[in-house]
Write a structure and sequence with these properties.
The chain is α+β, with helices and mostly antiparallel strands and 563 residues long. The chain has a single domain, classed as Glutamine Phosphoribosylpyrophosphate, subunit 1, domain 1, CATH 3.60.20.40. Helices cover 36% and strands 16% of the residues. It has 19 helices and 19 strands. The strands form 4 sheets. A 7-stranded antiparallel β-sheet has the order 1-18-17-13-12-9-8. It has a 7-stranded antiparallel β-sheet with strand order 7-4-3-11-10-2-19, covered by helices on one side. A hairpin with a 5-residue loop joins β3 and β4. α5 runs antiparallel to α8. The chain is globular and about 60 Å long.
Length: 563
């Protein structure tokens, strides 16, 4: 007993030893336009597009392809993502360019003869890859909303890959960390391992990727899903024992969807619908929290953190049971967002004691995932806003480098339920709604979000972080709307996370004070440290005078740029 208490106090001291980022810090403030991304070079690319008269979608296209070069652990052309758009006139749209399961995929493809999950098969290597959607998504977005020529938006990425760019300290460390996986899971030698050890300031040139980007620049969708790039991708699959084919590439199609929208208190939420769980879960969390005097309780006090954790526990239980690809499964969206249903879920929360997750099943809906995602937020001079989350899933995805094409492939198949009730690599549990099927899109936690206040644009926000994305965005919104933090301070602020199962609270260093952490423990919460931080967010806040404040996450190399 005494050993257990001493061990917990040691963990508690470690969690609270370092203070979080400055919650009063203000970010870059601009008059007309703002771009916030995971890399300074990508932010500069987006800013330059807006300077030339491009709109938010133009800038998003240029940023997406620039990130594929300078931020290869999550920026991509071999992955997918989600996009939420709010135009100046208030009209909204959402684009699903999530990856899809290949035609040869099946629900038992990661099980052995006894029906047990083959650990790791869905997470690394050629079999872990879904059909990429990024290029098709960007083509679709530009065709519907773009204003500048497509070729002009691709050229900055082509130039960066051709000429090379200096590595940041963090990017050099990540390339070194994953070197052995690149060698093990790629059938040809990637450009990322041409040096034995990368250091900050080293220039990384990617000539094969430059050629692939040039084909996309010149031929649009056909430059990726057909022709030489498709041939190289299919050959890579054959060499590595994958199941994706050129026919899968040819058949891929992104989908325009109606955003999830709902008024919660004084803000109107516009977020991503299924197959992302982000929009539904975020609105449920905000609606549950709305009933309590959070401002009075204070930021990250024990009572405040306990309430948020209990809400998160219930929302992730719902996620595991009710959410999946709406083209394959009847997702009860209206029922899950029904105020009476949310109120019923809230009733089970005790303010005095943590609920054991074993006793929190998904609610009966009323009748009627990688931590290395990346997010970027953009507002253009006309007032159009775009929130985009894109990913390879885990850092550098499947670790499979497409020989001759120069890019990495995703490992998004891990976001399916390999077996209902069995957790994926991030501990997320899924059910029948998210079982593997040919052509199906895997469930996601990505939550690109735009907020309105009194009918006007108020905030653009989103995050990386796999299963922690939803709770990251949730806490950032509360930091601004409830606690009055500036955008940068709200993103700096320490975070914590609970996802129903496993039944513990992950906490950043310094996110909780010692006594508040102790009170949470006494309420029955298992609080564990999360080294490296939770999420990496990019936000833009419209200030009362109409200016824009950018929030770039200090947990990475993120940067704001604007004018």
């Amino acid at each position: 007993m005494y050993i257990r208490i001493a061990s917990y106090l040691f963990i508690l001291l470690a969690i609270t030893a370092c203070s979080g980022g400055d919650i009063r810090e203000k970010g870059l403030v601009t008059e007309q336009a703002m771009v916030v991304t995971a890399h300074p070079l990508a932010s500069d690319v987006g800013k330059a597009v807006l300077r030339r008269g491009g709109n938010a979608v133009d800038a998003a296209v240029a940023v997406q392809f620039a990130l594929a070069v300078v931020y290869p652990d999550a920026g991509n052309i071999g992955g997918g993502g989600f996009l939420v758009l709010r135009q100046q006139d208030g009209s909204v749209d959402a684009l699903d360019y999530r990856e899809m399961a290949p035609a040869a995929a099946h629900r038992d493809m990661y099980l052995d003869a006894q029906g047990q999950v083959l650990t790791g098969l869905s997470f690394k290597g050629h079999l872990s890859t879904g059909v990429p959607g990024t290029v098709d998504g960007m083509v679709e977005a530009h065709a519907r909303y773009g204003s500048l020529p497509w070729q002009d938006l691709l050229q900055p990425a082509v130039d960066l890959a051709t000429r090379g760019f200096p590595l940041t300290e963090k990017e050099a460390e990540k390339l070194n960390e994953h070197r052995e996986d690149f060698i093990r899971y790629s059938t040809t030698r990637p450009g990322f391992i041409l040096k034995d050890r990368w250091r900050e300031g080293d220039k990384l040139r990617l000539p094969e990727l430059a050629q692939s980007l040039a084909r996309i620049r010149d031929k649009g969708r056909a430059g990726f899903y057909e022709g030489p790039t498709a041939d190289l991708l299919a050959a890579e699959m054959e060499r590595g024992g994958g199941v994706m084919t050129k026919e899968d590439l040819k058949n891929y199609k992104s989908v325009w969807r109606q955003p999830i929208t709902q008024q919660v208190g004084g803000i109107h939420v516009i977020s991503m619908p299924p197959p992302s769980s982000g929009g539904i879960a975020l609105i449920q969390l905000l609606a549950m929290a709305e009933a309590y005097p959070l401002k009075e309780w204070g930021w990250n006090t024990a009572r405040y953190a306990h309430l948020l954790i209990e809400a998160e526990r219930r929302v992730y239980a719902d996620r595991a049971t009710h959410l999946g690809d709406p083209d394959f499964y009847d997702v009860p969206v209206e029922e899950l967002l029904d105020t009476a249903y949310i109120r019923s879920r809230r009733k089970g929360i005790s303010l005095d004691r943590a609920t054991d997750s074993e006793y929190v099943s998904a609610g009966m809906a009323a009748p009627v995932e990688s931590h290395h995602t990346t997010h970027y937020s953009i507002v253009d001079p006309q007032g159009n806003a775009i929130s985009v989350t894109t990913t390879l899933n885990s850092s550098f995805g499947s670790k499979v480098y497409v020989g001759g094409a120069g890019f990495l492939l995703n490992n998004e198949m891990d976001d399916f339920s390999a077996k209902p009730g069995y957790p994926n690599d991030y501990g997320l549990v899924g059910g029948e709604a998210n079982a593997i099927a040919p052509g199906k899109r895997m469930l996601s936690s990505m939550a690109p979000t735009i907020l309105e206040k009194e009918g006007e644009l108020f905030m653009v926000v989103g995050s990386m972080g796999g299963s922690t994305i939803i709770t990251t965005v949730f806490q950032i919104i509360l930091n601004v709307t409830t606690h009055g933090m500036p955008m940068q301070g709200a993103i700096n602020a320490g975070r914590f996370h609970h996802q129903w199962k496993p039944d513990w609270v992950l906490s950043e260093w310094g996110s909780l004070g010692f006594w508040d952490g102790l009170r949470l423990w006494l309420k029955g919460h298992k609080v564990l440290p999360k080294p490296g931080g939770i999420g990496r967010a990019a936000g833009i806040l419209v200030l009362p005078d109409g200016r824009l404040e950018g929030g770039a996450d200090p947990r990475g190399d993120d940067a704001s740029a604007g004018f």
